[in-house]
Amino acid sequence: MTNKIDNTLQERGSRYGTFGNNAQITQDLCDVIKQGPSYDRLLPEHIEAFHMIFHKIARCVCGDPMYIDNIHDIVGYAKLLEDFLKEQEEKPELANGQSFDDEVLMLIHGFQGKFGPNFTIECSQTAMLKFREKLRNGEI
Questions:
Q1: Does residue 9 form part of some domain?
Q2: Average pLDDT score over residue span 17-29
Q3: pTM of the model
Q4: Averaging pLDDT over each range in 11-15, 22-26, 105-109, which range is the top one?
Q5: Structural domain that includes position 131
Q6: Is residue 83 part of a domain?
Q7: Cβ-contact 125, 43 below 8 angstroms
Q8: Residue-level pLDDT at 34
Q9: Read out DSSP for 106-126?
């Protein structure tokens, strides 16, 4: 078993470069986007897609830049994010019949304690982002 793993790691190392170099470059790229003024508005889907794209970029610059699978994977992760964002746009009304604005208002009232200490709400990620943006901008 160990021999098989060692063989796989050696093969991948020749194709992608060292784990340490890949990790450093991937994390450096992740740190760069954290400096963007809209970073705190990203959804987990944004962050993971970007992380995986950065990982594939790191493989290109640490290993074989002509290995087309890395580029194919970058396109794939970008497509997954695009599809997710299109799906979010197509949800004008929530499953519980509330509008997006109603959902944001419920979050605001819950935050302000108007529903008591045990208030909970299920909300979309989009509504949560809008709520966080209003909070950050001092609108709440």
A1: yes
A2: 97
A3: 0.66
A4: 22-26
A5: 100-136
A6: yes
A7: yes
A8: 96
A9: HHHHHHTTTT-TT------HH
Q: What is the mean pLDDT of the chain?
A: 83
CB 56, CB 82: distance < 8 Å: no
Q: How many domains does the chain have?
A: 2
Residue 62 placed within a domain: yes
- The pair of structure tokens assigned to 33 is 């986007």
Q: Read off the tokens for 109.
A: 């009232």
Phi, psi of 99 (to 5 degrees): -85, 165
Q: Which residues of 81-101 are buried (b: 16+ CB within 10 A; e: fewer)?
A: beeeeeeeeeeeebeeebebe
CA distance 106 to 21: 46
Six token digits for residue 113: 């304690």
Q: Residue 124 has what pLDDT?
A: 66
- Decide: 121 and 106 in contact? Cβ < 8 Å: yes
Beta-carbon-side half-sphere exposure of residue 91 (alpha carbons within 13 Å):
18
Most confident among 96-105, 112-121, 129-138 (mean pLDDT): 129-138
Q: Tell me how far apart the alpha carbons of residues 45 and 27 are, in angstroms, rounded to a whole number.
A: 17
Percent share of the chain, pLDDT over 70: 74
133: tokens are 């943006």
